[in-house]
Amino acid sequence: MGYPDFYDSVPKITLYDPLSEFLGATEGGMLQYGYFDAVRLAGHSCPTVASAYWSTHKALNFLYPDMTPVRGDIRAEFGQSSTAGVTGVIANVVSMLTGAMSDNGFKGLGGRFDRRNRLFFEVEISGEMRFIRLDNNRTVSVSTRLQKIPASPYLPELMANCMSGTATREETAQFRILWQERVRSILLDYCDDPEVFVVMPG
Is 2.60.120 the CATH classification of the domain at 11-148+193-201? Predict the structure, then answer.
């Protein structure tokens, strides 16, 4: 299965999942997710999927500065509804990484490992999304400003041609390269830019 090489250069996210340990799914309950996992979940790679993955990475680093993040012990909140814009796409990636689910999540075993009621929409928050560490209520909000990342001026025309079915083979190849180049730039060139990924405590 081929994919752009830069996917493997994006830092992975390591978490401890107590349910995974309890059921013997992974040794010590340790799980590791990479950007390609988010791509496989969404079925595509785009700025939205990239920003969802990296925003969660930034949030987890803030919530757990000195320890491995605990999957299933994080609440995720969004300011918009699940059907507004790309919120649903972002929430799916966040849910995969954090284990946070709404009322359709895992119900738990003997009162433990419940994943429900940890994913909420249309909440009054300062940023686009907010993450809360449930054991100590440490909180962080994250917003992304992808408009600050330049895209190739050729992308709109190339995309239009591809969408209409009039693109040549060379134009189709060029569109795909330029599209993934912007994703690469988000995840590797601008990943630590505070004006692109805005992290706000509380």
Answer: no
- Contact assessment for residue 134 and residue 79, using Cβ atoms and an 8 Å cutoff: no
SS3 147: helix
Chain segment 111-162, per-residue pLDDT in tens: 888 999 999 999 999 889 999 999 999 999 999 999 999 999 999 999 999 9
Assigned token pair, 136: 């100590």
The candidate with the shortest Cα–Cα distance to 13, out of 31, 26, 25, 39, is 31
The answer to whether 13 and 70 have CB atoms below 8 angstroms apart is no
CB 91 within 8 A of CB 79: no
Is the distance from CB of 158 to CB of 175 less than 8 angstroms? yes
Rg (CA), the chain: 18
Q: To the nearest 10°, the Cα dihedral for 36, 139, 196, 194?
A: -120
Residue 1, pLDDT > 80, answer no
Contacting residues for 76 by C-beta, under 8 A, at least 6 apart: 91, 94, 95, 98, 100, 118, 119, 120, 129, 130, 131, 132
CA distances from 181 to 6, 71, 118, 130, 186 (A): 9, 31, 34, 28, 9
Contact (CB, 8 A) for 182 and 149: yes
Amino acid code (one letter) for 73: D
Answer yes or no: pTM beyond 0.85. yes
